[in-house]
Amino acid sequence: MLTALPPAVPPRPFWRLLYFWVVVGIVAGISVGHFAPDFGASLQPLGDGFIALVKMIIPPVIFLTVVTGIAGSHGLGTLGRVVFKAFAYFLFFSTLALILGLIVANLFQPGAGMNIDPATLDAASVHGFEEKAHASTLTGFLLGVIPTTLVSAFTSGSILQILFVAVLFGISLALVGAPARPVTEMLERLALVVFRLATIVMWAAPVGAFGAMAFTIGRYGLGSLISLGALVGTFYLTSAIFVLAILGGVAALNGFSILKLLRYLKAELLLVLGTSSSEAALPALIEKMQRAGCDKEVVGVVVPTGYSFNLDGTNIYMTLAALFIAQATGVELSLGEQLALLGVAMLSSKGAAGVTGSGFITLAATLAIVPQVPIAGMALILGVDRFMSECRSITNFIGNAVATLVVARWEGALDQDALHRALNGVPDALPAAPAVEMDPD
Fold it and tell me: Are the C-beta atoms of residues 391 and 397 closer than 8 Å to each other?
């Protein structure tokens, strides 16, 4: 006996898809920034405003996702396993990203032959980042995890503080058990409202992408990208190798295709590209990972912690940029000194979690501890750092998506059928309204 198939869901016209308008915003922003640079540079508030909107909803999204995931888990033992597996994954691949940046910098030597005299550099241009570098040390990181009050975690702008409070609150709900069930149910209902709010906010993404790209091109110009093209090109190439070869291999070993995953996340990747911020797509990533078959508890733990500890793109940037500055200023680093730099970068990259502009700040922290490389050399890359921040954010975002799927599979909490449907664009048999509908097809 044949069972009737559910009616096919007709695809939406392209002009009703959000990612199409994000592309339009990016292209329009590049055009305005190039042909009217002064006007383009004045549009920075549009991009900053959208990022502020997203940051407004990130605290409740993380809190509600983590708390309801822990409270509805199968026990604290399960939570402990997920945390252990996630951090083991983060440590291994973050270190691998640092090593890859080191290897590529030695092979291609993008700064060789520039012969820059450090005394001629504008050290004042990086003075502010140098002052902030103490916050990205391990001590600064540890002090920044614990909020002043329970409520201040939501106003501090620190993902780590929100995560810290959410984990403690979720564990408390799990320990109380049945009497706390009404609180958990209320938070689950509140999560539906917050994710619907995230959907509304995301429709401002094209305007944000337009403003951010117009500012970037208008302020720095395509010429600044070309003048340091060796560094920028090497960084993009290294990130592509990491995503397609290393993360692609990890994906293949775990039963899915990295290319299909990139297609599944195309809307979010365009949003990250347009805004130079992986945080802009955090709510959508949480929703899409659940739609792809990852257990809610795993998503609630891996995605927020990954945004703090699994910064693959930032790690590649740190070692690559540090060696570029050394090469450009004629500083020869021995193997031992490069390994020391690697060790410092491993610590400072973790300490930068939740620090605004973490890529540039952690680079300052790393160079400050390796005195052979002049910290004033950071002025060389200040003009093109904005271009590289887009690649950092995209690589970080992809790395966290892969990590979530892998940890879910290790934990036996990945629905392979749902993953297959999501990555192949097959509609669910009983389609439900998504929480954050970035890409409804």
Answer: no
Q: Name the residue among 75, 100, 56 with its Cα closest to residue 345.
A: 100
As given in the structure block, the two tokens for residue 58 are 């990130």
Spatial contact of 195 and 291, defined as CB atoms under 8 Å apart: no
How far is residue 66's CA from residue 301's CA, in Å, rounded to a whole number? 6
Burial class of residue 197 in the structure, from the number of CB atoms within 10 Å of its CB (0-12 exposed, 13-18 middle, 19+ buried): middle
| Of 257, 315, 308, 362, residue with least CA distance to 101 | 315
Alpha-carbon distance 123 to 119, whole Å?
9
Q: Is the pLDDT of residue 379 over 50?
A: yes
* Contact criterion met (CB below 8 Å) for 27 and 130: no
CA 255 to chain centre: 23
pLDDT digits 0-9 by tens, 251-293: 999 999 999 999 999 988 988 888 777 888 888 899 999 999 9
The secondary structure element, H or E, covering residue 193 is: helix 181-202
Q: How far is CA 433 from CA 13, 99, 411, 436, in A?
A: 18, 42, 27, 9
Distance (Å, whole) CA 278 – CA 432: 26
Domains belonging to the chain, first-starting first, are: 21-423 (1.10.3860.10)
